[in-house]
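ARCHIVE CARD
Drawer: 12
Card no.: 0347
Subject: one protein chain, sequence and derived structure
Cross-reference: see card 0346
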Amino acid sequence: VQAISGQSAAEVAQLGSSAQKLSVKYGMSLDNVTNGLITLGRAGISNAATQSGVLEEGFKMAKLEGIDLNTALEDLITTTNLLSQTNVDMNSPEYITQVKEMNTKLLTASQIAPIDVNDVIESLQYSGGSAAASHMDTDNLLATISAMGARGTKGSLAGTALRNFMTRDIT
């Protein structure tokens, strides 16, 4: 972890302590935590406090949705970066706030319809770029994905339909 993130020994020790607490709190092995920290380092997050905050959000998503921690972290980081309306440094305290907000939105979208967060993420993979380019509000985008999921259209099908709708010329 230290080699990837370039942190000092003191920062790694602080992060290790925080990671152990999260491991106990969420019932995940230290191997999963270590792999999660490596994922964060490879994503460019090198600040120990930011890593800890983002890691906790990944734990929440992984536990609630029954998915792998690394998958949750990758999805959170990618989605936050794609749909963020502001350009915030990934090592700043503001980034933790953005990730927390995105995690809440993604989990809410998955729980108000018979879809899971993987369906939401897959829909966003197909529609997120167009939504970001058109400055579509994230809340409206996720509400639309949930509404489509409630009617049986989910994942890539929902994302493709949304992308086509957003990029269609109106004449």
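Annotation on reverse: The chain has a mean pLDDT of 88. The CA atoms of residues 86 and 159 lie 23 Å apart.
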